[in-house]
Amino acid sequence: DVKVTQSSRYLVKRTGEKVFLECVQDMDHENMFWYRQDPGLGLRLIYFSYDVKMKEKGDIPEGYSVSREKKERFSLILESASTNQTSMYLCASAQRNYGYTFGSGTRLTVV
Amino acid sequence: ILNVEQSPQSLHVQEGDSTNFTCSFPSSNFYALHWYRWETAKSPEALFVMTLNGDEKKKGRISATLNTKEGYSYLYIKGSQPEDSATYLCAPESGGSNYKLTFGKGTLLTVNP
Fold first, then answer.
1. Nearest residue in A to B38, CA atom
2. Based on CB atoms within 10 Å of each CB, which residue in A14, A86, B87, B101 is the most buried?
3. What is residue A2's predicted lDDT score, i.e. its pLDDT?
4. Which residues from B are below 8 Å from A91, CB to CB?
């Protein structure tokens, strides 16, 4: 069974901390994505990557960065966490012409 | 940012009712239209990927149609069951070298037993 694994289901961090959200896929997909989901706003794309070491900004990249050193791993980094980054974060991977496979999500609370 | 509209925002139906919702998207530079189902406490799950104008896809009691010229897709559920309760998301995919989806805000369906 194909899988996208996010390292933490729930996370609580303090304002100003550097936060790493990890995502690993086992499907050899080229494309990986980070979204956040907020009530009333839907899923919004933060960053995506179509190859190792390649990254592209999504619709709301401010305050975030990403790293893709290996094909299977795509990390989302909050350089200095703020309360407005409290959200559900979803990672996905995909091959074109097929749908996304999503991870189970990380609910991040910044206090 | 693509403008993707889904309606209604939410819907309450009785078990056994049939229902449908709409997804509107820009028709220019269209490549594909994706539908997902997102149940509470689970990950979004892919339902359909549709590419051709006039295409119709079916999965059990759920079906979808696509009109790429006018930029809309309908999702139908026949004989709704409580387990169909979920948020249904659509996401158009544009042509071009970068593959990414822009999701609508979804339609929240609640099926009452």
1. A102
2. B101
3. 63
4. none
